[in-house]
Amino acid sequence: MIPQPQTLDLDVGHVQRRAMDFLALAKVRVVLMVLVTTYAGFYLGTRGAPDYLRLLRTLIGTALAAGGTLALNQLLERDVDAKMQRTRRRPLPDGRLQPIEALIFGGSITVAGILYLAVAVNWLSAVVTAATSVTYLFWYTPLKRKTPLCSVIGALPGALPPVTGWVAAHQGFGIDAWILFAILFLWQVPHSLAIARLYREDYARAGIQFLPIVEPDARSTGRQVVTNCAALLVIGMLPTLVGLAGATYFFTALILSVGFLACAASFAVTRTAAAARQLLLASLLYLPAVLLVMALDKVPM
């Protein structure tokens, strides 16, 4: 009778470890960020009282599709991940999961998420989510090893989740949705380039062609982050100018954008790891703050 509970304990432990590996494959923390921007788009695109059931359905479908897409990305990049210190312990390069398991898991929940959005929310949200998955997997992922333009290409799928939320609530596109897209797009480039500067030795080892790896002195990287932050300073004002948000948002976004631009300029001048870390921190503060204030200061439709 004694071996039975021991065997059961071993089985439960094995199941738990497998579950954690599949969660790691889906990159739960990244999915949460996707859900935050999707929720922001939904709330800002809502007329009148929010439809919380529709919101829940939107978040469920988006979470499934995002997690599945990220799992498929790890499948496609398992050889790259094996070469980098920061990723070599992921489930696929470490051998804890097999490629066929990642394919079935990632493919199934990606398709399930898109179909769920089409049936439970609307076809527009499904189309935008499908476009997010396709551009991430078949544009951004292969281009990371071919061209430094990959950071710009990668910003496209990264900027679409708030559009998913918007069309789920608003039942259509509009200038406001594309302003949200532009804010996310412009924000992502300095954010990703700051990360690439901090981990450029690791990326170089894996053959990733981000700008800081292709050009080690980071002059072009500095120009790129300043250009994007300067454009963000202008685009970030548009929600007030088109009547989406009020004056409180305008002045808050102005202050945040000037601070973000100052960090970008500091990085462009010094091009040090410390300046890149400061720029990364500024990016992590900027986006949630801007979205939160925009939501709090939303002009009723």
Task: Explain what you see.
With 301 residues, the protein is an all-alpha fold. It is built from 15 helices and no strands. Helix 9 packs antiparallel against helix 15 (273-296). It is flat. The termini are far apart.
Summarize the structure in short.
The chain has about 300 residues and is an all-alpha fold.
Give the arrangement of secondary structure elements.
Elements: H1 3-26, H2 28-45, H3 52-76, H4 78-81, H5 99-120, H6 123-143, H7 150-158, H8 161-170, H9 175-198, H10 200-206, H11 211-214, H12 219-235, H13 238-241, H14 247-270, H15 273-296
CATH topology of the largest domain: Tetracycline Repressor, domain 2
Question: Which of globular, elongated, flat, extended, rod-shaped describes the shape?
Answer: flat
What is the number of helices?
15
Beta-strand proportion: under 5%
Unreliable residue stretches: none
Helix-strand makeup class: mainly alpha
What's the CATH superfamily of the largest domain, by name? UbiA prenyltransferase
Radius of gyration: 21 Å
How many β strands by DSSP? 0
Oligomer: single chain
Compute the separation of the termini in Å. 68 Å
